[in-house]
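Take the subject:
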Amino acid sequence: MKRLLFIILISSLTLSSCKKMLDIDSSRLVSEENMWLKLEDSRAALMGVYGLTKAALNDHNAHWLYGEVRSGDFSIPIRQDLKAISSHNLSPSYGVMEDLKSWRRFYAVINAANIFIERVPEVLANDKRYTDNNMVVDVAQARFLRAFAYFYMVRIWGDVPLITSSQEGKFTDAPREDQFKVLAWVQQELEAAAADLPYRYSVNDPQQIGNYYNEAPSRWDGALARKLTAYALLAHVAAWQSNYPDAATYSKFVVDNYGRAGMGLIPSETLSASNGFFYDKNSNQLLGFGHVYNHVEGSFTGHIEELTLATPVVDKTIPDMFLPKDKILQYFNEANDQRFSADTLGNPTSENYFRNFNGRYPIFSKIKCILGGVTDPTFRLFSSATVFTRLEDIYLLRAESLAVLGETNGAIDLLNTLRERRGLAKYSFEKNGELVDAIFHERNRELMGEGHRWYDLIRYSRLKNDNSPINQMIRANAIYWPIAKDVLAQNSKLTQNEYWK
């Protein structure tokens, strides 16, 4: 009970400290003088930062609306807010759009991390069970989560305020910082966190001795940031800035060391099984936020299944979004693809990613974790993890980096490793076109529905540097979201993104 009360408390502190930005009232359940006294307090506070991060991604299905819906790949049958996002019409305020324009939930993560970093030394001073090693690892995770929140916001809004201290009770207005300054700080933080994080927890890693908070490895695998998690995010940060030499270096560290983290490439059947990769938590979720059904974390909302599933997978007539047949055949255009393929008559020969292909609404069913991993269509209570990155993503990000840098053979080897695992023939220029195009094509197929597509399209367009619609948006800064009106009203030093003024 104390642990639960503390998580609620740390959330209250977060919201209070950012009151001018968040405009949310605080209610504290215990007095501050009774905080930061015991090892249990540090664990509860750190888990609270993770919980706030998961909430920031899942609230209003934000992770998929930002990363998948905005790409325009999916068709939207009914919902006007999703139609507006898909067409880049971000000015309206109906549906969930005003909430998506607000960065308040990400600053809740940042302030909770700031508080943790500042106050956790008090636990070290008060509880002999809490060791120096424990604190170093805990602070590294808090720094990672704070950096992750900033990277996520930069991709959505561009320039954002950079706040690195909690300033409890006296938060002052802060201007937006140039996104490249913010990302330089993010890189610095991630490198520092990576140096202190273990490959795994509770396995006597030299950087995390003994059982972490007295729990076995199975409790933490896939649940916490690890050394390779930090390097994977570093690779993404570098690639987002078109810094492909650094992206290649960071991704190489992940590819060379994934065995030390108990990870491996995922079989096709595991990727799309109802009780497979996206179910629960596991070490292959390089950065994931689980919704563990046995911990009563299943929910009706906050999962991609809420948007994509309908009959015959669940009892819902029309999905909120679906991929039309012509696009499915355009993307999955090679025979024997274990994710999805069709014969010459248009009949599916593999349905791991899609059901009801020849119906009015093909159902994207790659991710379909219902209840405890069952397939009963009468339920719509979902339990899939929100996965930001996995090993296949980093393989392809490294292939992208090497291809841009002219290291063609290395890029092809990485691409072929994944193609062959999905039942495809090796890459050839004659059949698959330019190498960079083939890599992004494979990213689309492999990572579909995981929140990468919009950001991949931006990176791809930057590489092509042509007069495509997305490049026109990049030049006009239209790729970024407008800032919510209530956020602007609470901070006099903020200015609206230029495109949306």
